[in-house]
């Protein structure tokens, strides 16, 4: 006859705390990866079957543009100004003012624009996605959809992924244009750089490949942000407080995720495509 081994309350508390705080994030990460894979497969199936929810995607894309356009403009100007001031001081000391356009364009296009687009979408767009789906979850609308045979991933997740992946590159292009123009204006008026010299160095170092990298990174960030927002929203529980916790977690996790992914993509790009003069 086997005897049940009794465990102390301290051990039970430690095991529960370890499972919740140490293993919980790992399980959440696994569910997020699973949702991303299922969403991509569902997107491919919807394209093949011609069943994409275009209306839902367009409505969500318009909402994302409306809440991020003005912040993107206000964020792009400081990016261009800060880069010009910081790099300009160093370049002036080296006597290479003609390279200011190259440095400003390189920093804004490859790094500032996609990161700013991702942060804006993570702060405004993903939080709205998490709040919307979280409210539907706690009101048991998601369960009702499953009961009626409607797949929430096809109906709700895929259109939001499409919208975020489409809006993020648009934001990146907008930030690039505003940031580069702001950097050009400051370089010409305060740094003593000639307009022709600025654009000549800009064109010598910046290339369409850099712009393509920025757009690809922005699209990837959009997909990541949308998946995280949907996952947090669909798993919300505990009423309004659970929805608020999901929104907060969405902003934090999405920001950390895009910074980490940006580091990996930039490292790979730098290894295979080192900086060259065009």
TrEMBL record:
Annotated transmembrane regions: 60-83, 115-135, 156-188, 211-230, 251-272
Keyword Transmembrane appears in the UniProt entry: yes
InterPro entries: Permease_MalE
Keyword Aminoacyl-tRNA synthetase: no
Alphabetical keyword list: Membrane, Transmembrane, Transmembrane helix
Domain of life: Bacteria
Pfam families according to UniProt: MlaE (PF02405)
UniProt xrefs under PANTHER family: ABC TRANSPORTER PERMEASE PROTEIN-RELATED (PTHR30188), PROTEIN TRIGALACTOSYLDIACYLGLYCEROL 1, CHLOROPLASTIC (PTHR30188:SF4)
Protein name: ABC transporter permease
Taxonomic source organism: Gordonia sesuvii
Source taxonomy: Bacteria, Bacillati, Actinomycetota, Actinomycetes, Mycobacteriales
